[in-house]
Amino acid sequence: MHHELQVVADPDAVAGTAAAFVARLAQACVQAHGRFTFAVSGGHTPWAMFARLAHEHVPWEHVAVFQVDERVAPDGDPDRNLTHLRESLGAAPAEVIAMPVNDADLDAAAAAYGRSLPGRFDLVHLGLGPDGHTASLVPRDPVLEVSDRLVALTAPYMGHQRMTLTYPALARAQQVLWLITGADKREPLSRLVAGDRSIPAGRVEAAASLVLADAAAGQGPARAGPQSPA
After folding, report:
1. Which of 9, 18, 43, 54 is least enclosed, having the fewest CB within 10 Å?
2. Which GO terms of type biological process are on file (predicted)?
């Protein structure tokens, strides 16, 4: 998959550029088909992006936000992506479709979440770990080989089992937006943009891919500040 790489100065510029991009795409999708379907991963950078989105024109009442992945932890737990997502959205009237990680039967819950997914996502946000993982698709986890389900459970990773979208679900993305910051991401970012399928992130397929990276992670000259990608 071809990745369009855009390097900006710092994490704040990544958040601002991403917010402008998301707002513009949301407006276009709502105008075209009445809804914007947006799947969001965890991590610090997306929450900064949502804070910046508060200052953009977003048709929130027509936005459906899905989760890319989630830790199996109680509601309100600070380790939950949903906790930070709700805080970041504030009073924005978006529909949030949360992963049911507190259900007693997690396999059935994953299957049910898969059935709730749209036939396509207008946008999927992904991050990149120092080990090359994305979503909760981590090296050597059996979930990497799941091809018959849209949502699956991982082995425990960094203290938590996870529920995650699988590669077939991520392939429903019309557009992927990668947000990548920090010097520890330089090597996996280089491998990602080179199309290295030996890292989990390198196996993601989508119709289009925009990679926003800060200068610490990026492989090219940094732009001065946020812009609105076309």
Report:
1. 54
2. carbohydrate metabolic process; pentose-phosphate shunt
State pTM to two decimals.
0.93
Is the pLDDT at 108 greater than 50? The verdict is: yes
pLDDT of the residue at 220: 54
DSSP element (H, E) containing 172: none
Q: Is-contact 142 167, C-beta < 8 A?
A: no
Alpha-carbon distance 85 to 28, whole Å? Answer: 23
Strand order in the sheet with 69-71: 69-71, 162-165, 151-153
Count of H-run helices and E-run strands, the chain: 6, 10
- Model confidence at 1, pLDDT cuts 50, 70, 90, reads confident
Res. 2: pLDDT tops 80:
yes
CB 14 within 8 A of CB 8: yes
CA 91 to CA 88: how far, in whole Å?
9
The 3-state DSSP class for residue 203 equals: helix
Q: Which residues of 174-206 are buried (b: 16+ CB within 10 A; e: fewer)?
A: ebbbbbbbbeebbebbebbbeeeeebbbbbbeb
